[in-house]
């Protein structure tokens, strides 16, 4: 979404998309309440499809590049995955983001429920990253619930909020994330 005028989204759901489920690219004055999404069931540990394949990210649309992921995870065949130390974490990185926010301002997000759906991961953290925020200001998250992801909110410097610091009974829970930063998150 690249809206510049006041936009309200209530009770939306996006699932099983390859790069991201929600993308606010340069958006301003957005209210979204009751967002729901699941990551693709065909990405992650034990699957041959790793994001961004089969697509090529396009920066004009704020597509994530997955450049923070290990280059090794995109080159290894599934036959050798079980023999590589840390390979599960690498494959968990190349899973579609739940939400990408870049160059946005005046964004208010209430009641988000994001969950990883790649069941074969065999652990409580099936996905490495959930939400990416880049160069954005005046951003408010209230009641952010993320199931099965290690890094709940990231920026270009790394994790801002993790499951370890925000553990709830069914994953990570953030009551409020107030990103009021004039220079951008």
Quick summary:
By secondary structure, this protein is mainly beta.
Could you list some keywords that capture this structure?
mainly beta, 1 helix, seven-stranded mixed beta sheet, five-stranded mixed beta sheet, 45% strand, 185 residues
Report on this structure:
- The chain is mostly beta strands and 185 residues long.
- It has a domain at 10-55 and 87-136.
- Helices cover 4% and strands 45% of the residues.
- The chain is built from one helix and twelve strands, in the order ββββαββββββββ.
- It has one helix at residues 87-93, and strands at residues 7-10, 13-15, 20-25, 28-38, 97-102, 105-115, 127-134, 137-147, 149-155, 158-162, 167-168, 171-179.
- The strands form two sheets. Strands 1, 2, 4, 6, 8, 11 and 12 form a seven-stranded mixed beta sheet that branches. Strands 3-5-7-9-10 form a five-stranded mixed beta sheet, with helices on one face.
- β11 (167-168) and β12 (171-179) form a beta hairpin.
- The longest helix has 7 residues, at 87-93.
- The two termini are 19 Å apart.
- The model is unreliable at 75-89 (pLDDT under 50).
